[in-house]
Amino acid sequence: MLAYLxxxxxxLQLPLRLRLWDGTQLDLGPQxxxxxxxxxPSLVAQLAHPSLDALGGAYVEGRVELEGPMSEVIRIGDALxxxxxxxxxxxxxxxxxxxxxxxxxxxxxxxxxxxxxxxxWLDPQMVYSCAYFETGTEDLExxxxxxxxxxCRKLRLQPGxxxxxxxxxxxxxxxxxxxxxxxxxxxxTLSRAQLKLARQRAKDEGLARQVRLELLDYxxxxxxxxxxxxxxxxxxxxxxxxxxxLYCQRLFGAVKAGGLVMNHGITAKFTDGRPxxxxxxxxxxxxxxxxxxxxxxxxxxxxxxEAGLEVVDVENLRLHYARTLEHWSARLEARLDQAxxxxxxxxxxxxxxxxxxxxxxxxxxxxxxxxxxxxxxYEDGSHNxxxxxxxxxx
Length: 394
Fold this sequence. Notes:
GO terms for molecular function: methyltransferase activity. This is Fatty acid methyltransferase. Pfam families: CMAS (PF02353), DUF7884 (PF25371). This protein is α/β, with parallel strands linked by helices. The protein is about 40% helix and about 20% strand. It has 13 helices and eleven strands. The protein has helices spanning about 50-60, 70-85, 100-110, 115-120, 140-155, 170-180, 190-205, 245-255, 280-285, 295-305, 320-335, 335-340, 345-365, and strands at about 15-20, 25, 35-40, 65, 160-165, 185-190, 210-215, 225-235, 255-270, 310-315, 365-375. The strands form two sheets. A seven-stranded mixed beta sheet has the order 7-6-5-8-9-11-10. Strands 2-1-3-4 form a four-stranded mixed beta sheet, with helices on one face.
């Protein structure tokens, strides 16, 4: 059966073992750390030029099995794809039209999977975004608390101020801002599962009067400048390139003059926003974040500026997100038996690849994570920000 394998596979020196459907094995290098079990004979031809999308899709669909640490699976899979990629292949840029119905469906697909499943591998507050490692030695819970504190400090949040949380998730940041900084928080989400749990947690913590959470599309935000501050975490990735101008305009209209707006989200490596190479971005779009699109930092800051906001600070947390994802992946891998009781087998396969793959991708600079702080100036162009960042770190 080895005769059916593409000849270029034999020239590789990777710690990978191939096991075919008839039990035949081939080691592609010494001391294999990962075994790729090919169950579908039709897959063999694809191994001549295996993209990450094709390899990942075959695993999700059960056409192959993977044996070994998931972090090694991702590393070796990328090396295999890179060594055998077809240089004539080009990554096609596609733009998806986003409307309220399609965005709601995409959000539901991703976030309504199972609250209990997410709780297995997120921190106790279920903060599903990049953590902040002040020293690099923090555990996940400490780093997520530090991230929320960092955001609130950047916003110079004060007791009694009205904070808009766009894409509030399970409400971890909303509750933190209310509890630790005394803010009055209005949060919005399109996920019914998130909203139900977030409301219950606010009630259980005695914060129901300070934290109001609603099922609302960002396009329907009030435009009367009623909020003192705005925070949006992990949100603009879902908006789509075509709607970024409208999204920024809605944030501008929601915040009062002199108010701060914080955008925290994943940004593309390439200025044209094309996904990462060798099929990784296509896999995420197909199985994880339908209709998700990553803007480059330059694109995002341009739209923020054109909406009338002034960018006053930018921080790259790419390596922070790599470490956050390493924590998430390790926590999921340690609880696979429990996870298998909560979500379908295919969903669990997707998430194993997604978390480990994104940890690898962020570590290698395939995409970044930027916090972009902007302000809505007064009519005369002035604002009341401190002259330096020193107050953030006291």
